TrEMBL record:
Necessary cofactors: Mg(2+)
Assigned keywords, A-Z: DNA damage, DNA repair, DNA replication, Hydrolase, Magnesium, Metal-binding, Mutator protein
E.C. number(s) listed in UniProt: 3.6.1.55
InterPro entries documented for this protein: Aldolase_TIM, MutT-like, Nudix_hydrolase, NUDIX_hydrolase-like_dom_sf, NUDIX_hydrolase_CS, NUDIX_hydrolase_dom, ThiamineP_synth_sf, ThiamineP_synth_TenI
UniProt-recorded name of the protein: 8-oxo-dGTP diphosphatase
Keyword ATP-binding among record annotations: no
NCBIfam families per the UniProt record, alphabetical: PRK08999.1
Annotated ranges, domain Nudix hydrolase: 2-133
Length: 315
């Protein structure tokens, strides 16, 4: 097996994370003319963050002042096998200049990048960037269907973009009607909906309702050998082994928790942020933190490698 080359890569963001930077590889390099996220090899004795800071100074002439770890992707090129550790860079000093690239361009999240060709390893990164920082889980069982629909309408009007219809204990007909209403309302606001899917009957319901995808409970995740055929598939995870399985199935994202004690399980201490950060460091998919979260924890979650936070009560 060929040696794996460790690389630090930067998703440099501006305009509140709505735009990101791509750079064009110059003549004389492998894949010349391809567009990529800036970055480079980790040198001996460097951490991934140290390599990121050095590479962006050399390539773009900037000094990074704020960056958070994100996902890791392994990719086999004809000339090398690389493992890219991505960081989201949100602040820097200096003016960006293409010192070691032939050009750079700003692209908008969730839209066509506007430049081509894109380096093959970066396709999944563009899809992951379209995921929002907040993942809302419904609680119609506890709050009542009408109260939950009213809460959802307020949240969607305020910018919520990703919803899971949970509520697995509702009577099947009530759950199906509730899910249909959630899908219709969310789509009217440009948001996506996943249906919690403990079995294949839920898959059928999700297709019938026009849901955007499935959220797999841990028990079902552990039975799968292939990704369900939906545009968007996520899973609940509680261990490094389950995160690794979600990676092998090439899911779009996972939820990991509980990070903190929750109202429903106050006796459980939770993973804590250090363990969360350790478990997600090598994940190929974005991971949301779940359990005792509030919106004030978003930046803490991102500092520990999370895509964002998943909430049942706080959204």
């Amino acid at each position: 097996m060929s040696k794996v080359v460790e690389v630090s890569a930067a998703v440099i963001e501006r305009n509140g994370g709505q735009e990101f930077l791509l750079a064009c590889r110059p003549e004389g390099k492998v894949y010349a003319g391809y567009w990529e996220f800036p970055g480079g090899k980790v040198e001996a004795g460097e951490s991934h963050r140290q390599a990121l800071d050095r590479e962006l100074q050399e390539e773009l002439g900037i000094t990074v002042t704020a960056a958070t770890p994100w996902i890791s992707r392994r990719f086999v090129y004809p000339h090398a096998t690389v493992r890219l550790k991505f960081f989201r860079v949100t602040a820097w000093e200096g003016e960006i200049a293409p010192i070691e690239h032939s050009a750079f361009a700003w692209a908008r999240i969730g839209m066509d990048a506007g430049v081509e060709p894109i380096l093959p390893a970066n396709g999944p990164i563009l899809r992951a960037l379209a995921l929002p920082p907040l993942y809302a889980l419904t609680q119609a069982e506890e709050r009542g269907v009408e109260a939950e629909m009213a809460r959802l309408e307020r949240a969607l009007a305020g910018g919520l973009k990703l919803v899971q219809v949970r509520d697995k204990q509702l009577p099947p007909a009530v759950r199906a009607d509730f899910a249909a209403r959630v899908v219709a309302l969310a789509h009217a606001h440009g948001a996506r909906v996943l249906l919690n899917a403990p079995d294949e009957a839920s898959d059928t319901l999700a297709r019938r309702l026009g849901a955007d995808g499935l959220h797999l409970p841990t028990a079902r995740l552990q039975t799968l050998t292939a990704r369900p055929d939906f545009p968007l598939v996520a899973a609940s995870c509680h261990s490094p082994e389950e995160l690794a399985l979600a990676d092998r199935l090439e899911l779009d994202f996972s939820v990991l928790g509980p990070v903190r004690p929750t109202p429903s399980h106050p006796e459980q201490t939770g993973l804590g942020w250090d363990v969360f950060g350790e478990w997600v460091f090598d994940c190929a998919q974005p991971v949301y933190a779940l359990g005792g979260m509030t919106t004030t924890e978003l930046e803490t979650a991102r500092r520990h490698g999370a895509q964002g936070i998943a909430l049942m009560r706080g959204w």
